[in-house]
Amino acid sequence: MSRDTVLPFALAAGFTLGCIGIQSARKHPDAVTLVLVLLLGLLASAYVGRLGQLNPPRNADALEASHVWTPLLLHPTL
User: Fold this and answer.
1) Which pLDDT score, from 0 to 100, does residue 13 have?
2) Contacts (Cβ under 8 Å, ≥6 apart) of 63
3) Where does the sequence pass through the membrane (predicted)?
4) pLDDT score recorded for residue 46
5) Residue 45 domain-assigned?
6) Cβ(67)–Cβ(73) under 8 Å?
7) Residue 10 falls within a domain, yes or no?
8) CA dist., res. 37 & res. 43, Å (int)
9) pLDDT of 17 higher than 60
10) What SS3 string covers the chain?
């Protein structure tokens, strides 16, 4: 079968499995809440972990302002 034929069937199968999962999850609201809280915690820890990987500058040149707006913000007439 060509890709044009397989793709709609794969999308329909994924949609159907999603609907079955949602219908079965309605019977266990506590488990759904637990899974959503765990996913939120995982996303939050990944976000904080990504922000925590700041690399300090290694030489004096790296300490200089590298952003275009920094000189404008420090200008005395602004």
Assistant:
1) 94
2) 57
3) 31-49
4) 81
5) yes
6) no
7) yes
8) 10
9) yes
10) CCHHHHHHHHHHHHHHHHHHHHHHHCCCHHHHHHHHHHHHHHHHHHHHHHHCCCCCCCCHHHHCCCCCCHHHHCCCCC
Q: Which residue has the tokens 């990504």?
A: 50
Distance CA 46, CA 67 (A): 27
**Mean pLDDT computed over 10-25:** 90
pLDDT tens-digit map of 24-68: 888 888 988 898 899 999 988 888 776 665 555 566 555 555 555
CA 70 to chain centre: 29
| In a domain? residue 40 | yes
Q: How many domains does the chain have?
A: 1
Residue at token pair 């999603």: 18
